[in-house]
Amino acid sequence: MLKSIISEGKTTNEAIENGLKQLNVSKNMVNIKVLEAEDKRSFFSILAPRVVKVELTLKENKIQEDKTKNTQNKKIIELSEDEQNKAVSNIEKFLKEMLPLLGNEIKYEVKPGKEYINIKIDNENLGFLIGYRGETLYAFQNILTAVAGKEIENKVRVLLDIEGYKAKREKTLEELAEKVAKTVIKTRKSVTLEPMKPYERKIIHSKLQENPKVETVSIGEEPRRRIVISLKK
Question: Which site in 45, 122, 184, 217 is 20 to 30 Å from 29, CA atoms measured?
Answer without folding.
Answer: 184
